[in-house]
Amino acid sequence: MNSIIEQSIKQKRTVLTELESKKLIAQYGIETTSINLARTEAEAVKLSDNIGYPVVLKISSADITHKSDAGGVKVGLKNAAEVAEAYKNIMTSCLKYCPTAVIEGVTVQDMAKPALEVIIGVTTDPQFGPVIMFGLGGVWVEVLKDVVFRLIPIEKVDAQKMIREIKGFNLLKGYRGQEPANVELLENLLLKVSDMIVKNPEISEMDLNPVFVSKDKAIAVDARVILFK
Amino acid sequence: MNVAQKSQDQITPDFSTFDSIFRPKAVAIIGASNKEGSFGRLFLEGIIKAGYSPIYPIHLREKELMGLKAYASIKDVPVPIDLALLMVPYSEALKIVRECVEKEVRGVVLFTSGFGEKGEEGKQAERELAKIVAGSRTRLIGPNCNGLYSPAVKLVSLPGSLITGGVTTEAGTLSVVSQSGSLNDFLVQTLTRKNIRFNKTVSTGNECDLHAEDFLEYYGSDPNTTLIAGYLEGIKDGKRFYQLAKEISKKKPIIIWKGGMTEAGARSAVAHTGALAGSSVIWETMFKQAGIINPNSFEEMVDCILAFSWTGIPKGRRIAILSSMGGTNIGTTDNCIRAGLEMAKLTDQTKERLNQLLPGAGTSASNPLDVGVGGMMNPKVFAEGMKIITEDENVDMLMLVADPDAPLSIPSIIEAIPSIKKPVTVSIFDMLDLTESHYRKFLEHRIPVFHEPKRAVAALAKMCEYADYLKQYK
Question: Of A214, B208, B222, B311, which sits 20 to 30 A from B236 (CA to CA)?
Answer without folding.
Answer: B222
